[in-house]
TrEMBL record:
It comes from the Bacteria. Keywords: DNA-binding, Membrane, Transcription, Transcription regulation, Transmembrane, Transmembrane helix. SUPFAM superfamilies: Homeodomain-like (SSF46689). This is Helix-turn-helix domain-containing protein. InterPro entries: Homeodomain-like_sf, HTH_AraC, HTH_AraC-typ_CS, Tscrpt_reg_AraC-type_HTH. Pfam families: HTH_18. It comes from Paenibacillus oceani. GO terms for molecular function: DNA-binding transcription factor activity; sequence-specific DNA binding. Residues 646-744 form the HTH araC/xylS-type domain. Coiled coil: none annotated. The chain crosses the membrane at residues 12-37, 292-312.
Amino acid sequence: MLKLPLKVNSLLVKSLISFLAIIALLASFNFLSFAFFKTNIEREIIQNNRVALKTAADRYEKHISIIKTMLFKLYQNEQVVSFGRQLAAKDPGAVNYLKPADIVESIRRDINNPFLYMDNVFVYYAAASFTVDKNGTGDAARTFSQFYVSEPYTLGFWNRQFSQAATTQLLPNRLFSIVSSDKQNKQLIPMTVKLPGYPHMIISMLDAGQLYESFYGNNGPAFTIVHSNGSVIFDSSGPGTASKPIPLAEDQDYTLQDNTYYFTYDSEETNLTYMTSVPYSSIASQIRKLEVTLLVLFAVSVAIAAAASVVFSRKINAPVKQIIASLRFRSPEVVSSSIYEFKLINEISRELIRERNEIHEDLQSKTSLLTDFGYISKLKKLASGSNEWKDTIVQNRPFRIVLFQLHIRTSRHQAMPAKPDRLTYAARECIDLMFAEPFPNSRTLQMESNQLVSVVFGDDRRDLLERTLAALKAIFDQDSGHYAVTAAVSSFYPEGSDFNLAYRETLERARQARLQDGMQLIWDDVREVHHFVFTAQEEQELYSHLQEGGGAACVQLVVRMLEHMARKEAFRGQYRTFAQGVAAKVLKVTDKAKIEPEPAGQLSDMVADLEDCFTLDDYKRFLEKFIVVAAEAVKRRRDEKDPVVEFFFAYLEEHYSEDLSLDSVADRMNMSSTYLSAYIKEKTGTNFSDHLNNVRIRQAKEMLAGTNMSIRDIGEKIGYRNDTSFIRMFKKSSGLTPGDYRKRAALEGNAGLQL
């Protein structure tokens, strides 16, 4: 193997130095981080304990405030107060013992709230020695001696509380023996509420264990709550523990005594002091263990990193040396390395050589494809920077172009649908086969997914081309169930440079195709026919009939236009544009009418069937089915029984001749005008003024066609007080003035036609 001398600036030395520098940098960073961590860990522990204590104290304070508010509300409850007065009167006949049932229900609702952490609430009436709690009513002496028993919370203790000045008190927690459905012991914190002049007191029993677990957690340091009078309200080590005064500096909330950190938080609102204690010995022990662990890990990490740096540097350097030696001495030596990237480089270099040879061979076989591309570029007038095969394309030979436009059926309803790309490929193969013998120099190209172009070189032999296309027509007509073909033939061009002009000519002639189920041949340009659209009156009639669900009348209008287009020999594209326009108008009406989702989805799916329309009968069948489905859906929507809508239409039919307004109709229907307008718009898809105008214009048409009344009198009779407004609204609705409409009605009546 060829070797290179090791130098100071070699990859091995540079990579090894870089790795060692990174190790040194990380080592120094870890050392400084460890020193900083050791210095600040005690401070962080203190801060974390202060935050934890303050969070727990805030939770206790908020909870005590909530409980206090709830107890005062119960204390001043009218039933609680009135029942206490009845008991204080000491007249058994005047006491309504049904009142406590509501009090018990109220207490149970509060007790059942799991977030209040209350075991029970007592309403104690001292004058009658009577209690009400979640379990019902009973004698106070029996309650506190048998059911909720704890020292020193006896009946005498609770009686002495009436002589205390404080309105609320939070008392030290004690272990209570509770007898209800079963016997259990619980740590409870009593809380009392009383007011001067009232003969009763509220006693709430807070579950000390649940409060501690929810607000502080069982795994934390020792936790104590001390009242300002020195009594211990709660101690996590157990009830009855005496509090130890902790002297603190004026500006501090923690201190270190007897190798223990004490943290305190004072509440001015409740006069409570919250305190936690963390032994310093446990903190120091943890820090020492952490120091030893970090030092060991640091030493091991540096040793492993140094060894890995040497090994990895050698693994990187060895294949690089082989590659350099191979390039320097031009040796075809295969590089051996366990590193994936070096193997990949070696494989890629050999693969590139192999691909170069394959590409060269492939280019030789792709001359035909390049030629096709050249023809397409010339036909579409695409710019190209390649001149290698230009001479094979630009030949001054006379030619014709035949463009085959395939109108492929969507095949949604066919049992065995054919794929469009396969149909186009089969058509191209058939054209090549038919053109091969009579026109050996012809070439067929696929310009689009459904468009083929055949370039026929040679003298102008139109008769031969006609016979060839006739034979193709016989073949394509056998597959008319899958597609229809339009074959547009260009003029004869003596110069080969006119490819683009000939292509644009065939495109224009293909656009002039008529409706025909089968192959259609177009040799000459056809005179442009006018556009086919509904008149304003016909469009208004279409909308009116659709909104009323009159499918037959709409179909009659559309079929009349289709037959007119057939007489005028409209183009295939004009039929498609007209049908799409009608479908869009119908969908607009159904959308406004808010038809049911099923027919709406059916109409949406039916639009795709336009792709299968190739004859006049196809368009008639499609539009008839489309309009009937839409009209029936609209009619079903209109026929839905809605008393408000029915009354609204009936009222318009009876009073259209009056000076109606939205406010007057709404007042008649005992609704607000805003609500009525929105309701009618939502249910019918049309606003109030359009409904009123439709009724009036319909009545006007009947009078114009069937009476000799003047236009002014007709306008006044249907509710228009100004003949100018009547004429403007009539023309907007029907597209004609009242006078022109009357003349047209008279002419069509004389001709026996229905208007």
